[in-house]
Amino acid sequence: MTIVQEQPQITAELAKTITTQHVVHAYLFTGSNQAQVQRVGIWFMQALFCPHAKEGYPCLQCNFCQRIQNNDFPDVLTLATDKKSLGVDDIREAKRELEQTSVEASGRILLIKQAEKLTTSAANSLLKFLEDPVGKVTALLLTKSVIAVLPTIQSRVQILSLADSVDTNLQVDLQEKGYSDNDLTIIQQAHLEDELMANIAGDKFKQLKQVAQTWVQQLAHNPWQAFIAVSTTILPAVENRLQQQLLLSLMEWYFSQQLNQAVDDHVKLQWAKQITMAFLHAKQLWTANVSLQNSLEQLALQATNLSKRG
Amino acid sequence: MAYQALYRVWRPQTFEDVTGQSAITQTLKNAVATDQVSHAYLFTGSRGTGKTSCAKILAKAVNCPQQQAGEPCNQCAICQAINAGSLNDVLEIDAASNNGVEQIRDIRDKVKYAPTQAEYKVYIIDEVHMLSTGAFNALLKTLEEPPAKVIFILATTEPQKIPATIISRTQRFDFRRIPTSDLIARMEFILKEKELDYDVKGVQLIAQAAQGGMRDALSMLDQALALDLQKLTLANALQVTGALDEQQLVAYFQAVFIKDAAKSLQNLHDIMNSGRSALRFCDSVIEVARDLLLTKSDPNLIDAAQSLVLPETLMQLQEQVTKQQLYTIITQVSQTQQDLKNADRPLIYLEVLTVQLVEAMQPAPAVEGTDTSADLQVKELQQKITSLQEQVTALQNDEVKETKPMASTTSKKVKPAPKNKAVHVDQVKINQILQQATRKALNQVQDCWPDLMSMLNVTQKAVMKVSKPVAASADGVIVAFDYAVWFERVMSNQEMMTMLKTNLDRLLQNDADVILVAAEDWPKIRQKFLQNHEMPIAAPDDPQEKQATSNLVEQAQNLFGTDLVEVKHD
Amino acid sequence: MKFTINRNQFIKKISNVQRAISTKTTIPILTGIKLELSQEGLTITGSDVDISIQTFISVSDADNELHIENTGAIVLPARFFNEIIKKLPGEQFTLNVVENNQTIIKSGKTEFTINGLDANSYPRLPEVESNEKLSISAEMLRQLVDETVFSASKQENRPILTGLHLKISAEKLLGVATDSHRLAQRIVKVNNQSDNDYDIVVPARSLKELEHCLIEDNSEIKISISENQILFEFQNTLFYSRLLEGNYPGTDRLIPTSSDTQLTFDAKSLLQSVERASLLSHASRNNVVRLAIDVNASKVTLYGNSPEVGTVEENLTTEALSGADLEISFNPDYLKEALQAFGDTKIEVEFTSALHPFTLKPSDNKENFIQLITPVRTF
């Protein structure tokens, strides 16, 4: 399925701004699925530059479209990083380049992937550029979280949110890797698409899902057992940080389920709320580089306290 | 790509055009007209309130040869060159990309060059809070000795990051958030100029969502107009602001107020599934809670706060909540907003929030009086105090009993107590020191304490970090440790003890012993000493003890210095 | 595609193209060099987006020993390709693109197989209409660049000032560079058969690269200008550069039309004096020298000082002196660089006041070459 089919509304809106010549100089696209956000970004660039575009929709076949797709187009400057942040030097170099005229197309595009990675100074040094670019430049920022982008940047760009939709490309890919339909449903509902870009086999996903589910239940019924399970069951199951990330996201999903199912029982709800808050805290610790073992064991200890009181 | 965003097209070009900052623009206009322009300005205020625009207008006004009543003409070559950003004498510097000392020094060096075309050289330094400390210092030098005919305009959204030394050398203007009514007026003006039809409610909605920022407002207006070129509709305004529609919001609040967790969560999911952002959701909840609070306090406040009047259905909800509950809602939502910054998926945070809000609606447990919680707290505290008092007296009695035998047994050893395997406080030695202790001696020790610390190696320093001298005489120094563990460790470390003593003696040029105590024990030890001396029962082998005066305060003053004597309940 | 070619000849031809290829590009295919073979010959292209250089090796030139078997196009990783060709053993080599962009390079007993990239992914060089109506001698172009580009700004703060402003009207090409504290303007003659006027800003870096390509070249260079690009054509080579966007400051009004004090110097001896004075000014934080002109006493004195080191004072030899007395301070480095650009000639220096920029012009070419220096305020 094409991105236009997956995201009919946003693509239609963008096509309209092109045909009515209302394309502004700075956009921010956001959505929970990074891969999809990127595809919309590429589609928009193709739409802006495709010489065969019809009513704002690019042909996707021509040499221009192909090269934009493959990041081989000289008038698109892409800023992306595998590191933790995008720094001010990256921006400086990009700005220098963007002061020059375009090579092939009628204008130029600055594409910033994962704009949440911009450091404060990098973001600040973009402000002037985002407000008053020289020449025909369109800035396109992509992010999974608008909140993580500096407010002064937000006010300079038009923010477009992707609707939640099924990422069919991912689904096909995952089916090939042996994911069951049930797994796919969970992935979609829990928004695990970003975690799964990391190439995790279907069996591994099943295992992690099982581990997460069991542990969340253990935490409710027997926190001490859950404490022990951290080192006996969980640690052997995860091989790297990406899998840890997936595991925590799966747990988050089960905690959310538990919370939603407890609504009719006041005591249960109280507990579910507290344990979920404790979990979110543990997850933040993990994000701040506390080890998975420490984060989860601490959570289990907290659970023993909660159950004593509850 | 020829389209220009509204906020760029409608950027104000004269002071008159600037929305919502009349006090500032009037002042600046007068300054220009009467030729009393300062050499440095600091413009602060949140985003989109007109800081950079005013800076540029000021740059034009001071340089425009046809300036009238402080306004630039925008027609002459100078004005137009400044508008095009091509006048060499007006420099816009983005402090975020030029935040180092080097760049600011360069400004300092170049400031000396006379202006080439204009009368004044104007440096507009935007995002000035991004400068490094070194850069600020370099800038300070220039602001201290401003060359003639040079104006610095510093602009920032974060004045709290600007050093006081900089602020004190500038004229500071705080740009306030633009009132919603002014935002509406400006948008309506632009829409009329563009001959576009609009839905008044849509304009209001955007103004509300812009939170006092003109750029935000025009950005959203632009986006809404891109959806429909002919007319600003309410639906499109709703979509671009991501505002929750009334019904959704009312349903959510109703469910929360009747404490129906299931329904509240269901409503939350409905709202989120309709594509609203978590942030906007939180904003809306806070806005409604605030307006309800205002209505409950005094309905007139709503107008004063420039808020949109709540729909009837929401207004009726005010009967169902107390002010206290509204405060709780606001606090909890803002907490969640903070958490959302680090969230991968916002939904779960909102779910937890919703459950919390439902709980906040539960009547407080143990409903007795009106101010139950405060009452309870007071009672609890009173109880605590009584039990603490009991403990203290018990302890004191114990000690008095205990010291007598201890003092008499240890008093046989005249030389300083050797370090035993069991760490214990050498009360005799302490008593001796306290006998002789003077404030002056303590001051001396305190003065050389940092020097002593610098003689230690890293580990030793780390250990001693939690210690401080608390009393001193010519032949001894008492050092208290914050943590008993460290105190014991140092006590049993002979090498370190020797090291402390020899070095301290070298610094003080005497032969003082070093006695360690745990800080938590120190008040007891001190008290014990004072008590012992009030009723002279203790160690008779110390002749000087007889000189002990019965006046506790006098002795205490002698010991600890007058400046320290103060009754404290700890 | 398949061809055989003389190896040394090939290395010579691609050396210019190599200049344009950068290793640190965000566009992967630009680390490659593009070879395109037609019946007429081989076209080689390199680009870093800012500049693109293309050269043509003709089949009709016997020195090239170019034998074409079949035509086609390929992009090869530039760094490896370059090294490989240099180290091949034979006089000639054969390059053959087989399936999947695999490329076999054979010379003597050596055979390399390299993974190439699809030439369709390579950026299209801009279509600059080559009307062959605008041309300039290489000598003139080099002079223009040498005598102006040093005044361009080296800072990114105002990117437009990092370029050379070129204005062409009729047979006149005017080049200006300024960093807003000094300015250099040069007018040279071009052959312009068109009716068009042009007004563009070319990045200084591009012009410096162009100069390198033009060393030892005295041919006539054709210039074509489009909205986004400028193209220089010389000896089977095309040199493209992007332009800088934005409004170049109006410099006409900066240049004073009248003056109150006029001096004439020998540029070379003035340069030596300034170099001496700057020995001390460099040691001080300010880096400023002071020039005192006493017209009645016919005395012009240059002072330099450093609070720590000491002072220098030199009476300058003037060729002529007229107008009002004046004391003026300025950055000696600006004057040094300006004088270096003049070379060995007589120059006229004209002042209006201590706060206004002063101008320098060569006596024999007053109309076409002018430099401007902004004084430093010392009070």
UniProtKB/TrEMBL annotation, chain A:
Coiled coil: none annotated. It comes from Bombilactobacillus thymidiniphilus. This is DNA polymerase III subunit delta. It holds the Pfam family DNA_pol3_delta2. InterPro entries: DNA_Rep/Repair_Clamp_Loader (IPR050238), P-loop_NTPase (IPR027417).
UniProtKB/TrEMBL annotation, chain B:
Keywords: ATP-binding, DNA replication, DNA-directed DNA polymerase, Metal-binding, Nucleotide-binding, Nucleotidyltransferase, Transferase, Zinc. Its EC number is 2.7.7.7. Residues 412-421 have a biased composition (Basic residues). GO terms for molecular function: DNA-directed DNA polymerase activity. It is an enzyme of class 2 (transferase). The keyword Protein biosynthesis does not apply. Residues 398-421 are annotated as: Disordered. Residues 37-179 form the AAA+ ATPase domain. The keyword tRNA-binding does not apply. It catalyses: DNA(n) + a 2'-deoxyribonucleoside 5'-triphosphate = DNA(n+1) + diphosphate. Pfam families: DNA_pol3_delta2, DNA_pol3_gamma3, DNAX_ATPase_lid. Belongs to the DnaX/STICHEL family. This is DNA-directed DNA polymerase. It comes from Bombilactobacillus thymidiniphilus.
Automatic annotation (TrEMBL), chain C:
Transmembrane segments: none annotated. CDD domains: beta_clamp. InterPro entries: DNA_clamp_sf, DNA_polIII_beta, DNA_polIII_beta_C, DNA_polIII_beta_cen, DNA_polIII_beta_N. Gene3D superfamilies: 3.70.10.10, DNA Polymerase III, subunit A, domain 2. It is found in: Cytoplasm. Residues 253-377 form the DNA polymerase III beta sliding clamp C-terminal domain. Residues 1-126 form the DNA polymerase III beta sliding clamp N-terminal domain. Its main location: cytoplasm. Residues 136-249 form the DNA polymerase III beta sliding clamp central domain. Belongs to the beta sliding clamp family. Confers DNA tethering and processivity to DNA polymerases and other proteins. Acts as a clamp, forming a ring around DNA (a reaction catalyzed by the clamp-loading complex) which diffuses in an ATP-independent manner freely and bidirectionally along dsDNA. Initially characterized for its ability to contact the catalytic subunit of DNA polymerase III (Pol III), a complex, multichain enzyme responsible for most of the replicative synthesis in bacteria; Pol III exhibits 3'-5' exonuclease proofreading activity. NCBIfam families: dnan (TIGR00663). Forms a ring-shaped head-to-tail homodimer around DNA. This is Beta sliding clamp. It comes from Bombilactobacillus thymidiniphilus.
